[in-house]
Amino acid sequence: MTRDEIRATVLRTLGEIAPEADLSTLKADVSFRDQLDVDSMDLLNFVVALHATLHVSIPEADYPKLATLDGCVEYLAGAGA
Amino acid sequence: MPILTADMSAGTLVEWRKKPGDALKRGDIIALVETDKGLIDIEVFTPGVLETIVVQPGATVPTGTVLAVIRDEAATGALPAPAGAPPPAPSPVVPPPPVAPAPPGRLRISPLARKLAAELGIDPAAVRGTGAGGAIRREDIEQAAAARAAAPAERPRAALERQARLRQAIAAAMARSKREIPHYYLATTIDMHGAMTWLAEENLKRSVPDRLLYGVLLIKAVALALKEVPELNSVWRGSEPVRSEAIHVGVAISLRGGGLVAPALHDTAGQSLGDLMRSFRDLVLRARSGGLRSSELSDPTITVTSLGEQGVESVFGIIFPPQVAIVGFGKIVERPWAVGGQLVARPVVTATLSADHRVSDGHRGGLFLAAVDRLLQAPALL
Fold first, then answer.
1. Is the CB of residue B261 less than 8 Å from the CB of residue B288?
2. Residue B126: per-residue pLDDT
3. Å from A80 to nearest chain B CA?
4. What's residue B157's pLDDT?
5. What is A3-78's CATH topology?
6. Domains of chain B, first to last
7. What are the chain A neighbours of B208 within 8 Å (beta carbons)?
8. Predicted confidence (pLDDT) at residue A78 exceeds the cutoff of 80
9. Bridge-based pairing state of the strands B342-356 and B325-329
10. What global pTM score does this model have?
11. Given pLDDT bands bounded at 50, 70 and 90, which one contains residue B133?
12. DSSP code of B45?
């Protein structure tokens, strides 16, 4: 997958977890928690959905790397998505 | 129209998921209903065959209204009716109201309820009584007033209107709780070092979808502690508590845009941590997307609320009637903690209990919190 494709997948997944969120104004370098009304259960569902879609293993210790859109793209590209 | 929460008085039939002639088994989703708590899937409690749909989509009806008629297929099979004989009596999709309405022309209403009706501008004759013999009680007038305020307008239902109705429903339940339930409050601080260490190691062994959040440990510990102090796992009916054999912990889930629901995790004590986590995850997803089931709203026997993610260190909840207790958890924070005479840094959480003093005393409440603490020190056994 290209980085743009990964970015689109992340945004689509985020939209499914928080359907009311306006993702067009999402800042790529600011944490999801600071911009969206999401909690740890949402973020767990987000990680589970990314895992199912992209077939990448994401250790729990790496969850902080998925806190922002930029972080997600960087991490998932590096993990072979 | 089933009563799904203590203060629900009406619901709107959104759509039927089954059609006449369909075979039904217990637990099937038969209809989608909109209530103050959002869109709820209505489950079947009586197996059989859907015979007649009584309430059409779009209609708003009071609780207790028969929505559809289910023919008892088992009875038909066991005792085939002879030709020409009347078919077996059909059963309503939901149990009929527990109390027969008062006979026409004779209004049974308590003096307090009559006074309240006058104050709120409610016509008692239009209110269905739920007291003995159909008598109208104060609660019936309150519900009628709430239903009037929450009555759906003809115009399209905007999200803001739904929010306002949800707020009204919460207001009614919480005001009633504070008015009628003599709360007492207890708090204790629990060392979470062992639980968090165990959780980190456990999650290393689990695949991504099976990983646990620490919240599920707290919920399971509460459920198991209820076995030791079962009076907290009760509901208040009429003028006395009724102990529940089943332990269905309701979990407070905040909704985006405001408001909350507290649906049940059924058989909380009997589920493994993995199963409980899956149920919890599914419940949160459905609570926020409008897919809760009717039994999940009506079955909780106690509520657990946690505001730790908001940075709150302790929360003293208001009991959700007819339950008799609510357990609160705050944020896990690192604090100085004495271990074997040495001061060390430990992750700790403040657990609180708000309980109904008509049902339990502080001594029993204290034993309950002590049990939660003890259970969390052995997370592998949860």
1. no
2. 75
3. 17
4. 57
5. 1.10.1200
6. 10-92 (2.40.50.100), 111-175 (no CATH), 182-381 (3.30.559.10)
7. 47-48, 51, 57-58
8. yes
9. antiparallel
10. 0.74
11. low
12. S
